[in-house]
Amino acid sequence: MMTTSLFMKSYALRVEGTQAVLQLGDAPMPKPGPGQVLLKMHAAGLNRGEFIPGGLIKGGASKPAGIEGAGEIVELGDGVNFLQTGQRVMGRCPGAFSEYAVMDAREALPVPAGLGMQAAAAVPLTFLVVHDMLVLQGRLKVGEWLLVTGVSSGVGVASLLAAKALGARVIGTSGSPDKLARLKALGLDVAIPTRAPDFADRVMEATAGHGVDLVVNSVGGSVFAECVRTLAFEGRLATVGYVDHSLKAEIDLQALHVKRLTLFGVSNKLRSADQRAAGVPAFAADLLPAIADGRIRPLVDRVFPFDQLAAAQAYMESNQHLGKIVLKISE
User: Which CATH number does 126-265 carry?
Assistant: First the structure.
């Protein structure tokens, strides 16, 4: 099923001052190298960090845009003998906002039969990060309490969905009462409408004084100390983002000491390709079955046509969405 085209339509991204600028144009058709597969892209997920200069993107020359998606394998690179052409896969891949893209074969996850390609494009980056936070590092157990700050974000919603599938109880904060009400229907146990660091007392009340066993902090330094105050004995705190742009925070060393707390960060920014791929088999074992049987349903807020990526970017920056925004590339 090899393609004979020399060029394809692809988005490039460049930084102009403090803005990430996207441009659709012709680009050479990529070729899969050893250990890679070439995908005909069907859909790609948007992620806030890829549009923030200094976040997932740097200045300099234009770069292929997009970092996750779902598509059909059309060509196998040397050494790839565990996948086949025609197979539907999803995964992290650079240049996902393109008609074709190359993916590390170790990152390619089979798309479950009952999952559409647009929903599949909303899985890879967010749910792999969530698996890292909740399972690999967070050790979340059945019946434990999870607190998610900014629960209406893409990572926040995925954390809620995964935690409920794992049998945990979830508390979420958000500045939008409307979004919290919609998330209650998806299993959110306790909703706290706030963007301020003022939720610890309500968390303690909701947990009968126990505190939470794990926190997912996607807000940043402005709520870090308050998150520590919510932690139970041997609690864990994951830092996954700082949308508040607050990069420093107070640490209560006495609480860290006497409660035997664990503080950890979750990022792929400095990981090698081998390190990124290492967590994929565990994700496939721990969470993919729940996605396949419908216990976890990726929440797609809105799907934009391929030629409207700039509109999708603007919609993301408006903060109106709940869950993931997806770019439809082909049928």
Answer: 3.90.180.10
CATH of domain 7-123+298-328: 3.90.180.10
Neighbours of 196 (CB within 10 A): 10
The pTM of the whole model exceeds 0.90: yes
Continuous segment of H or E residues that includes residue 155: helix 154-165
> Alpha-carbon distance 249 to 223, whole Å?
8
* Per-residue confidence in pLDDT tens, the chain, 331 aa: 566 679 999 999 988 877 888 999 999 999 999 999 999 999 999 998 888 765 555 556 689 999 999 999 999 999 999 999 999 999 999 999 999 999 999 999 999 999 999 999 999 999 999 999 999 999 999 999 999 999 999 999 999 999 999 999 999 999 999 999 999 999 999 999 999 999 999 999 999 999 999 999 999 999 999 999 999 999 999 999 998 999 999 999 999 999 999 999 999 889 999 999 999 999 999 999 999 999 999 999 999 999 999 999 999 999 999 999 999 999 8
Find out whether 42 and 121 touch, Cβ atoms under 8 Å: yes
